[in-house]
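Researcher: Please predict.
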Amino acid sequence: MSTDQNLPAKQLSMVITAAAVRQLPDVPLPPGYTLRTYRPGDEGNWLTLLHQAGFNSWTLERFVPYMRETERVQGSHCIQYGDQLAAATFASHRRPDPPEGTLDYVIAHPDHSGKKLGKAVCTAVLRYLVGRGYQHISLVTDDSRLPALKVYLDLGFRPVINRRDMPARWETIYRQFAP
């Protein structure tokens, strides 16, 4: 399990086991939406999604080398609606020993919110990583990304308590989800 003490102070870390991923149900897509893997030529659409999600530091010059990792090319998934990408996330390799995959940059177009596209694209990437033999899959995120945090918790990700401030931060997050 990840306990990376070098994460930036603002980042939360979460992990899910392969056993939990194997228990995930299928996430049906609404009519007109198609789940698929990343394809060369998608760069512009992925950059648009990254920017709409607030990841404005992404450029083509950053994206192209980032996609050279085997896990990213083969395991990154997106959901297409017409000629637009509605949601996407990267699959990444975090470390070799013990092997750990990473779910990176879950992004969704705001015009397609409420359709469980984030959950569907995350499930696809998680299944890919488990199929590649990863026993743990991690992610990092921010406290303010409440819709994404809800998706991760619903999928079975659990917080990694790796700093003294984490219990209070997670308590605040859980309170925001209480009915």
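Model: The chain has one domain: 12-177.
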